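Thread: quick sanity check before group meeting

JM: Hey all, I'm pulling together slides for Thursday and realized we never actually wrote out the predicted structure for the chain we discussed last week. Dropping the sequence here so it's in one place. If anyone has concerns about the input, flag it before I start.
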Amino acid sequence: MNTFPISIYCPKGSAGANAQNVWSNPLDVDVVVQTSYAPRFAPDTTVATDGTNYATITLASSVDGGTTWVDLYSCTTNATGGAALAVDVATTMTINAAATGASFRLARGGLLRVKKTYAGSGAAVGGSVVLSAVKVP
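JM (edit): ok, ran it. Output follows.
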């Protein structure tokens, strides 16, 4: 097995501004996101939980060039079901139960996207999602 890390940075931007960044599989083999090692989000700032103004970080995949996205994992600072973030302290992301096995396998050119969305005025937060993937023939 040929396992390797993928790190995708999502820019901070200002409070209330959505942002995203995309990684494209450059390899001549398929890549499978390992579900046995949940991705982690390492924020670049500390953010408290809030029931009105919060951020949600989502890791999604696309196997059709970005037309359709499937949410794989997420984390939020929503006071209901979320957690506070501490600068440079990795937070384990929660798997989306609706994601299927095919969504975790990316052929050459398959995409992974880290997207940050806000509710209310949100909070200025950016950071990196780090995950483990394996090359498969």
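AS: nice. The CA atoms of residues 32 and 105 lie 4 Å apart. The chain has one domain: 2-136.
JM: adding both to the slides.
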